[in-house]
Amino acid sequence: MQDDYALVEGCRRQDRSMQRLLYERFAGKLFVVCKRYVKDPDEAEDILQDAFVKIYRHIDSFRFECPLEAWLKRVVINTALKHIRKQKPWEHTTDVQELAPVLPQADESLPTLNYQYLLQLIQELPPGCRTVFNLYAIEGYTHPEIAEMLDIAEGTSKSQFARARSLLQQKLQSDGHPAEGRPR
Amino acid sequence: MDELEKNMPDNFWRKAFDEAAETPPPRVWDAIERRLDEPDSTKILPLWGTGLASSRPFVWSTRIAAAVALLLLGWWAVQTLPSANLSYKRNAPNVIAQHAEKPANTPASKEPTATEQADQANSSTELPESVASASKPTTESGTKTLAKSGRQQLSPFKPYPASALATLASKSRVPNSVGSELLMKTGQLAQARTAPRMSVTTAAAQASINSVVASQAVVTQTDGANPTVTIAFEPLSGRSLRLRGFGQIHRIVWFRPAEPELKPEIAQSKQRSRDAWASASVMPGSFNPMVSIKSASVASVGSASLDAIKASTTSQQNVSSSPNFSVAYQAGAGVQLSERWSIESGIGYLAGRSTLETPAQFSSASLSAGFIQNSASSNLYVDALRNSIHRGDLAYAVPQANYANVSNSAYQNSYNGQIRQVLTNDYQYMQVPVQVGYQLRPKKKLSLALLGGIITNIFIRNTVDSQLEITAKDGIYRPVSLAAAMGARFRYRPTRQWSASVAGMYQPSLGLGTQSESQVQSKPNTAGMSFGVDYHF
Predict the structure, then answer these.
(1) B200 and B283 assigned to the same domain
(2) How many Cα atoms are found within 13 Å in the side-chain-facing hemisphere of A17?
(3) Which of A42, A80, B52, B235 is most deeply packed, by most CB within 10 A?
């Protein structure tokens, strides 16, 4: 935290070296976050770039009320969502009630897999499903929060998540990981 | 962070990406640095306003302020522009006077402005030092000097080089200078001619100027050696370059193109609708003279025919005419009075034939059962015609012997109803129709018009059975008679100028076609189909 404080203070002074340190420290993780939300690497770079510019320009709004990494991650996610929102990936979505019988449950017995493989699976998802899955399964937002963030219905969020999980389980099963596809 | 941690439905995915990291390419940081160096001035000012700007009083006060500002701006423009024009007009003669007053050999007394330098370049003949050096016979020094000065002063982005222009102008106008009368070759002349016309400060202009000076120097050097063609030329004096400043417009060109005289729209429509045409037509049809023998007037005729007429009256014998083929030719012209009404007239010729059946006269020589064909002056019709001929023309029209036969009492009962004679009558008329037409389908390619009017029939002659010819001078037929004309006409106009027409016409006579005192009464009528061709002007 002490290092984070120094980094934030340096960035508030618009110290370029401190800005660079902040970037080098968190850019790797945040870049993966970006890649989880968009399939195109160039788009991920653009999102990361926009996010860091926002971070540097609004660093004064950070009050150390949460870990710096979490704040940075939220800025990146918001930037990614703003980028995705322009593409309106939630049009022509299905309500959750139609998919309720096939909703799979969370499975904690999954073996540890390479994140790059999982990242590839996530990137293969349709944009709407991918976003909801990221927000719900990885970031930890609830469906009402996701609905509000994405300006969609809560049912849409649920259905998109269910569809993402279904697609991911099918993919995992086809790749030789049958345990992930077993509903509970 | 609590918010993020409170909902973890799938720890597998969360853990999988918890420590995942991937170094972004260096270009990302480079782009971030560039953007950080840029000023953060990309704020968007919403026109609709937020907060105070969106409040109604603020909006209205802004609108009122904008309106007042526009009014003030308009007032300023109205007050300013006319005065600017006046000042320009007032100053314009001075400017011209300044140009005119500049003498040919008077140097400028004060430091000229850029515009005045340009003006002086065309009028002043004082040679600058660079030109003086260039006019020296030494080729190298002259070329270098001017070229050097040209390079120094001529720039594609600088104002008009006054000294360079002065050089060209003075060279071409001073009689004793090199450029006034050049002995040069043809190729060099082209360069020299084009160079003074240059008015744009470009690199090409600089090169041309240099080439002129160089050529002049060369020509000067070869003056005595080569007796080439001597050409004196007067270069065109270019317009002085005047930089246009910002602000008001200093010159307004009033131009009003020649406009055609405007006529009232009603008059134009009338003029447009007055379509005129000429036509030629032929009308085959039937002609019926409707001949009858007037018995009441017989008493006034001479006693020689009295007995014969009495006999015919008492026996109820009369003539009957039937229509036969006729043809009428007509050349006419018409004009459209309005969209629907038209009037037309012309001149025509009618050749009508009719068949007439008349009681015949008893005659031992020609007696036979039934009809007597072609028996001259032996029937009621012919006798009536002869009786109707005026006495003065009697000898001309009818042989006296025949007429005596009619008066003979032996023939009193000779017009027997059982013996009838058929005669042919060939009528010839000149016709002058005046018709009014009403268009039922105006301005259509296939038009339909109702026609009505009066036809003036001018009697020419009537030939009875190819033997007896009655003319207007005989006093039987009216020289001029009137007939009505009515009908309908279809006109097909495929082109603007040509049309074809088909008309059905009926022309009943409005009165007797014969004189009232004549025994023979005729009231002819004609019916037929007219086929015509029209040319529209």
Answers:
(1) no
(2) 1
(3) A80
Cross-chain Cβ contact A140/B29 below 8 Å: no
User: In sequence order, what are the residues at sequence separation of 6 or more whose Cβ sits closer than 8 angstroms to the Cβ of residue B26?
Assistant: none
A142 to chain B, any CB pair closer than 8 A? The answer is yes
Closest residue of A to B13, CA-based?
A: A138
ipTM surpasses 0.95: no
CATH of the domain at B508: 2.40.160.20
Q: Is the domain of B496 the same as that of B428? A: yes
Q: What is the pLDDT of residues B333-380, one digit of tens each?
A: 998 888 888 899 999 999 988 888 887 765 544 444 444 444 445 677
- A2-85 carries CATH number 1.10.1740.10: yes
Name the minimum distance, in Å, from the CA of A53 to any CA of chain B: 6
Contact B23 A23 (CB under 8 A): no
Domain ranges of chain A: 2-85, 96-181
Cβ A119–B17 below 8 Å, yes or no?
Answer: yes
Each residue's pLDDT tens digit, B273-289: 578 889 999 999 988 88
With CB atoms and an 8 Å threshold, state whether B17 touches A137: no
CB neighbours of residue A156 within 10 Å? 20
In a domain, B49, yes or no: no
> How far from A26 is each of A19, A22, B58, B522, CA to CA, in Å?
11, 6, 47, 128
Q: Please report the number of interchain residue pairs, chain A to chain B, with beta-carbon separation below 8 angstroms.
A: 100
Q: What crossing angle do the helices spanning A68-85 and A143-150 adopt, rounded to 10°?
A: 50
Pairwise CA distance, residues B145 & B408, whole Å = 140
Q: What is the dihedral of CA B366, B372, B374, B375, to 10 degrees?
A: 40
Place of tokens 């030109």: B131
pLDDT per position as a tens digit, B375-420? 445 677 887 777 777 644 444 444 444 444 444 444 444 565 667 7
User: Given CB atoms, is A45 within the 8 Å cutoff of chain B?
Assistant: yes
Residues B18, B6: Cα–Cα separation, whole Å:
16
Residue-level length of chain B: 537
In terms of CA atoms, which chain A residue is nearest residue B11? Answer: A108
CATH classification (class only), A96-181: mainly alpha
Host domain of residue B71 = 54-99
Q: Measured between beta carbons, which residues in chain B are less than 8 angstroms from residue A140?
A: 3-9, 14
Number of C-beta neighbours around residue A71 at 10 A = 20
Q: Tell me, yes or no, whether B313 lies in a domain.
A: yes
Which residues of B are less than 8 Å from A147 in CB distance? none
